[in-house]
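Let us work through a complete example step by step.
Step 1: write down the sequence.
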Amino acid sequence: MTHSDAFEFIWHDGGRANCGFVGYAGDCVVRSVAIATGKLYRDVYDAFSERSSKTARHGVTQDVVDSFLSENGWKSTTLYCRADVVEPYLPKGVVLVRFRPREDSRKRHGHVSCVIDHTVYDTWNPFEESNMMATSFWTCADITSSPISDHFRSANKAANQESELTQREYERILNRVKALHRTASNHASTEGEIRNALRAMQALMLQHNLQREDITDDQDVGRIGMTRRACPLNGSRCCGWESGLAYYLTDEVFPTVQFYQDRCGHRSLFWFYGPVSDVEQIIPLFQEMLLTIAATAKLKFGGYARGSGASYAEGYVNGLPRQSQSAGDTSPSESNSLSAQDGALVDSRALAVTSAARDWLHIECDIRLQNVRSTGRYRFDNAAHQQGQRDGAKHEYTGPHSQKRIGFQSDA
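Step 2: predict the structure and record it as tokens.
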């Protein structure tokens, strides 16, 4: 069991989306403090922006965090334990945990996450990240229970009502700024109208700590909650067919989800990232299909990592039904009924979401991906490969509780 297995994970953005913010930001400090204290995200955001003399959208320096938390009754404790035995040293209750990159890591930024009763409330689980290590944590004697529990809901009822009023006012300001932005961008506007719109827009943005990313939103993708989760597999080197299965699921079943591979000790990690709901669904499906293919290959050929078993598993993945095959099986009249424009809209939407997910991965997790090539080849068995293709073509993974995903159409 890795140290990440000891911590449950619940996705939480600290109330950023509910406060009208769009786009993605390196706001882990604001998010964690908002979750830990139960305060409005916007109030915490403004407090850190004022203290930093700049927007908190792109992160907060360590000295600002330390001074802010100390002044508000939080006490810091340094962790001297090994990275894989953090759980016994973290107390129950509300804890803010600070992470920093390992010395051999290329990461440049640290991270702060809120842990409540050994459950991580964040947009991703830093305990799953092999390149990050917990170095210290903050606790507050005045906050002994979770502000998001039932105990605090009645106490925060008045604050929530005030939040709704404040939110309407904030949305009114956002709409005003967006209207001014449209006026300034309209070629039909006169030079005087453009100049006045730009001045008014700049004044409002400075007054309310808004940036261009807050008012421009590509196909509304900036409001989609993003996350990344790790799916660990035994063995420091994964099989080619396991990677092929991940490619299949992200291309055909969940086109808004992407993945990359990493390793941690004697385990291979498949990291899936994208919209929260899709990532939460793709991981159990990936695990289920891995188990099905590996078990079948082991029953028929005695293994799945090399030789005939690996050839069978690779053929199984290659034989899985694909959208292009389903489209080829439809009659001409059915094909004509499918709108090319609708397909283009779906593709455009998926591209916008995947692009936003990559931006989120870089801004929030400080990760930029690059392609690498693997070497080595197992003994290929063509007969086993063809048998796997035939079995894969019959695979049916749409269970009674599953959802139809954009990008895959069944033959039915």
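Step 3: interpret the result. The chain has 14 helices and nine strands.
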